[in-house]
Amino acid sequence: MASREMELTGFPQTSDPPRGPLSALLGRLIDPFRRGVPPEPRPPTGFFTDTTVCIGCKACEVACKAWNELAADGLHWSGNSYDHTGTLSASSWRHVKFIEQFPADHAPSHPVPQDPTPSGTGFSLDALLNETKEGRWLMMSDVCKHCVTAPCQQACPTGAIIHTEFNNVFIQPDICNGCSSCVAACPFGVITRSSVDGHSHKCTLCYDRQRDGLVPACAKACPTQSIQFGPIDELREQARRRVADLHKRGVTHAYLYGDTPSKSYSELHSFYLLVDHPSVYGLPENPFNPWLHMQGDYVRALVGGLTAIAALLAVLLLLGN
Amino acid sequence: MQTDTRLQTSNYATKPVTKAPAWHGLVAWDMLLNGMTTGLFLVAALSELVAPDRFAAVAQAAYPVALILLLVDLLCLVLDLGDPLRFHHMLRVFKPSAPMSLGTWCLTIYSLPLTVAAAISPFSEQSVALEWVRRLAVVIGLLPALGSAVYKGVLLSTNSQPGWKDARWLGGYLTNSALLLGCAEMLVLSLLMNDANAVTILRPALGLLLVLNLVALCLLGFDLRATLSRIYSRWEVFGLSAVSLGAGLLVPVCLLLVSGSSLFMLAAVMFVLLGSLFIRFVITALPHASA
Amino acid sequence: MPGLGTSFGFGAASNHPRDLANSDCVLIMGSNMAESHPVGFHWPVLAQQRGAVLIHVDPRYTRTSAVADVFVKIRPGTDIAFLGGVIRYILEHERFFKEYVVSYTNAAMLIADEYRRHDDDGLFAGFNPATGGYDLIPGAWEYACESGRDGERGLPRTDPTLQDPMCVLQILKRHYARYTPQAVSRVCGCRPEEVIKVAELLCRNSGRERTSAIAYALGWTQHATGAQMIRAAAIIQLLLGNVGRPGGGVLALRGHACIQGATDIPVLFDMLPGYLPQPRAVPGHATLAQYLANGKSYLARRGDVPNGLWKEDVVRGAWSDMPKFAISLLKVWYGEAATPENAYRYTWLPKIDEDLSEMSYFVKMHQGHIRGTFLMGQNPAAGGPNARLHRDALRRLDWLVIRDFFETESASVWYADPEVTDPKAIPTEVFLLPAASVVEKDGSFTNTERMIQWHDRAILPPGDCRSDAWFAYDLGKRLKALYQNSPLERDAPLRHLTWDYDGGNLGIEGEPNTEQVLREINGYHLGERRQLRGPAELASDGSTACGCWLYCGIFPEERTNRARSKGPQLHGTSVYGEWAWVWPENRRILYNRASADPQGRPWSERKKLVWWDETAQRWTGYDVPDFEIAKAPGYRPSADAQGMAAIAGDAPFRMHPDGRGWLYVPYGLKDGPLPVFYEPLESPFLNTLVRQQSDPLTVVPADPMNPIVPPGDPAYPLIATTYRLTEHYLSGPMSRFDSWLGELQPEMFVEISPELAGERGVANGDWVVVSTPRGEIEARALVTERLKPVIVDGRPAHIVGLPIHWGYAGETVGAIVNDLSPLSLDPNADIHSGKSFVCQLRPGRLRRVRPPTPLPMAPIPILADPIPETPDAAQPAGRFRHGQ
């Protein structure tokens, strides 16, 4: 469900000459209601993030901030591995997560055998070469999922949140009035309202860069191409090939998260290759679109209201005459 | 997918994934005021339409009160916005699939006939035409008022917040509660205006609505039991239930049953109001307490 | 550098990072490539995606280990033991690439009988316990040679069957026989099978059809035995036949954007451009003739005899052209004043009479012998080992000139250092001159793959900021003006120094024309008044001038700056031959003759790089052949051939006089021809492989502020190791004044294992104090399984991990880790041992007079103009004053 809302090219650029106070007031009142011509739909784009090659360098975080001129969030040491960003926020639109997974036993690693054989044989060479590496440090660059059916877009009452011509979810920052319905609706905890300007902000999938034919800043900066950008169907193809490749090489628990719709949620245009449960990465195991309940909730609300009204009417009619 | 039995030092799995919106005290007051204004209007309108000779007077007093409550409520809503000066952006689109949009439009439309009714109410006796206009306004206002009452709960249950997302009966409870509050307010107005006719009907009505609301609240509580037991200890849950159900509903019922004196009825209404406010604060706190 | 230089000929990476994508197996050791070279790390990851095996051997589980297929944890400083185990495996199971080894390495050379190797004591012939060093015994460590005419040295004797007990291969075998998997495990703490695993993976992925690469960085160089660790890797790569081949080689991942350039055109005290030795105040360097006659390896000589093997450089191989390089250099510096009659003013070059490497220099400063210093983009107050000594030394200067972007720890050493109680008592006069950043000036970078890339200025520098080139040029002009009328002979070099680089980029007055500098580096023909097209045009008769012979060819014509070229064409699998320019002579992969067999045919189709074209009678291929273009594979030199004519048609390592890769280094390294496992200078463990505890030639500057902990001292039982994080850069000036980077790693911390934390009663996030005899620091503790200790010789080897990035100047401030490290110089490259020393750790904080004060966070700059052709709503968020 992609809503094709208005384009705002009719708007004056900020480098236009300044307006008088009355003109500015009228502008404030009227401009949000003006409509332009919707842009032609373009092939849908998105992100495919292959977490198995993420090196946790955070170039994506910095590139995003540099391009979008976002302020730093402050200097807070978290003690949680190398993740001091903590969470996506109105001024952090990329967030790299670190998950250390090491064997639970606290015995120091690899005691030397007491009576070594001279050439170290007594084991299978092939088994040795194929043994899995002990311990994992999972890294993942979190970002807005750009859901095809986005609860934030469904919730937004001002029409600030739209799907762009690239089918990415975009918050028009000059429309948002900070009602926070989107913040409440997002099952991935992506959107945050800024305490500085009172509006909600998130990854724009570098809408400005895409319109000028460029690749988003984070994908451009990612040194190992963990973050890949492109037409979404090509990305899905690449991703599936990569998963098959990993399975062949023994990484059997690699899978894609969000590349296909589930019973309760649409597909994501920013989907991931993961190697553990989604909850390990701080993602919902089974994302659920709240709108699946909406109609039922309205019915129940009406039931609640109408029973009260019926009871009231009954008393009024019985006792009123 | 493998089952991972290894030691994990990440705390992403133990922290909530969602973010809580910055909706705090104002939202609880808004829920209350919304219920109070829409409920008062609906009860006044219905009682006036069904039994006009009994309720005309009280109803006339009710509409200005409802208007004032609405204006205070709207003020709360506007101030709760991140950027209050952009409140008019809510009217850029009509998006019934978004509860917030539906609610905004319902409230906006509801305010118009309510204003007319409230404005005309003091003068309606002076002219038959004005009276008909007033009645028309009241009738027109019924549906938007109901919509405004209905949307609030659905808004809060149609999202991903812990607690709220499971509250299937939140809309049912709040709408039901709106009418309960409206009835309580009518009762107070009737008492203040010494309108015994109205009081004799409204008192049992209030009692019946309290019982219905009890059912609605129990349904809501059932929805929220998992969340509440996760956030609060057993004693705290017990305490919450005691205050909500007990003080908010059972005590007023008892007060109403025990005596017909104004004092008891006023006291019952106080309990209802305070109890409702308390319940709304608990509801508001659910996502924040889950963090 | 000496490790690679002595093994192969050039002290630089043999292959380029992009070439790692062609490897079938990449061993990353002594490097945390993902964190320190994240962009270059793309290539090993790509190799992995194509099916290669990525191995990481390191004391900590890092972001590189997270991506690697195989991770082996070893104790810091034990790399030679591990590599020795691998070498032993290769030799024991005869997995070496036989044809390659016989033809292209010195495996078959016989070593003189004077070579003795006591297998237990870990020392080589000539060790003198009294001096603690090696006496220069004539002929020791050298090849056994035929007798030539007139008693001169003949060619080395060889045994192509590799069976003679004194041939290099058999010596190698005996030398590494004790490095069994069990012995290695006892030293390194890894499992014995892990040695076998890594060795087997390398062996399986080498040979005709497959190649493996080894990449290292400061995890090897910052050890007393750093050069020998690199040597061990070089031995492995030569045995497996990986050098000079695509996807093979030894990659030195250098630690700074232009450090390769900083050693090519050096500011090092002991080198001239192009790795010519700086003359010393010794008889052998008294005149130009002697300097040239003694050749490049004079200072590594093994005895003062006329026909020492080290003299071979002068006679055979590419270094026989040293006179051309040196004289052209003198011509470029002294111009008309340098003539054949005055030996091209060779006597004007300063002669070294003492150790003036960085650490020794600062010890002298500390002892009051230095009056003033220039620090240009250098921050020794935090970045120097034993930083407290460095800061104390700086405070004894009369004057100090600092050029940097920010007021670094060195610039504010006189007041901001928490140890300073009274700034007025500090006598140093400090001048802080603001520097222009890389986007504010023209110039070039020479990166780890020997590639020189030009960059143009993007914006003008703000205010008074000026580039280092502007500063140096201006300083030179002022000095020349100051001394122009001096009658003293010692001022003559300054007066006659050629110094005309006017005409730089418009916009800054006095900015030098840096392209003119590069033209000069390339060199020009004086008579014909044209640029030189390559080093073949260099002459020793004073007709050519050249700033660095290695760079000759980069600017072949007046207007052709090959460092600017951006040709996108891919040749073969990784050679972008027209992108920028690589020394020497645009050869991307060094020693690439070795990618073809002795007859000139590629070892395999899959690993083709260069080959002999029989019809055209020239070498051809995807890369510029690192060989004389018309020399046939079958060419064999006569016994008295000289220069490049002495290099056979199947000898790829043309910088060596025998054209071979050196498994065994007969001269060039001070501490031995073969790597021996020595314990680090400071270690909680005793050496269980050889009797000699640590490298006897490690230099420890004597200073009361530099006490060293004896081995096994129970007061300092923990191993300290220092390293980088991706988020910050070096001692912090380039990252800790930037809140976008500061917030990624906002505080100094130390990493310890849960075992050590449990022993000391430390929880994650607690403050701890780490101490050594040099100093104490406090920091938060990050308790992590990634630093779980290995078991060495029966007990855990606890590691305290110390990121190096903090200091007292910046938006995020913290302890200076170098307050803990010792001053010690490795014998071959004068590098300190930052990767392994000892320390103690306790919970708590330091009681101090005042903590360092951070700067307030600077606001993020907002672009003034909107982005064109983009709707207002899609402009960057900053436009809406978000964040102000």
Write up what this structure looks like.
The complex is a heterotrimer of chains A (321), B (291) and C (884). Chain A has nine helices and ten strands. Chain A has a domain at 39-100 and 133-292: Alpha-Beta Plaits (2-Layer Sandwich). Chain A has helices spanning 21-30, 59-68, 125-130, 151-155, 181-185, 207-211, 217-221, 232-248, 294-320, and strands at 45-50, 95-102, 136-142, 161-163, 169-171, 192-193, 200-201, 227-231, 255-257, 270-274. The longest helix of chain A has 27 residues, at 294-320. In chain A, strands 8-1-10-9 form a four-stranded mixed sheet. Chain A has a two-stranded antiparallel sheet with strand order 2-3. Chain B has a single domain, classed as Formate dehydrogenase/DMSO reductase domain (Formate dehydrogenase/DMSO reductase fold, Up-down Bundle). Helix content of chain B is 75%, strand content 1%. The radius of gyration of chain B is 21 Å and the shape is flat. Chain B starts with 6 loop residues before the first strand and ends with a helix. In chain B, 55% of the residues are buried. The model of chain B is unreliable at 1-9 (pLDDT under 50). In chain C, 21% of the residues lie in helices and 14% in strands. Chain C is built from 23 helices and 32 strands. The longest helix of chain C is centred in the middle third of the chain and has 16 residues, at 468-483. The chains are: A alpha+beta (321), B mainly alpha (291), C alpha/beta (884). Chains in contact: A-B, A-C. At the A-C interface, helix 2, helix 3, strand 3 and helix 6 of A face helix 3, helix 4, strand 3, helix 8 and helix 9 of C.
* SS class of chain B: mainly alpha
| The CATH architecture of chain B | Up-down Bundle
The string of secondary-structure elements of chain A, in order, is HEHEHEHEEHEEHHEHEEH
The overall pLDDT average of chain A reads 88
Q: What top-tier CATH class of chain B fits best? A: Mainly Alpha
Query: Unreliable stretches of chain A, pLDDT < 50, 5 or more residues?
Result: 1-13, 106-120
Question: What is the CATH topology assignment of chain B?
Answer: Formate dehydrogenase/DMSO reductase fold
Distance between the termini of chain B: 28 Å
**Secondary-structure-derived class of chain A:** alpha+beta
Number of helices of chain A: 9
Q: Identify low-pLDDT runs of chain B.
A: 1-9
Strand order of the largest sheet of chain A: 8-1-10-9
Number of E-type strands of chain B? 1
Q: Main interface pair?
A: A-C, 82 and 93 residues
Strand residues, percent of chain B: under 5%
Distance between the termini of chain A: 53 Å
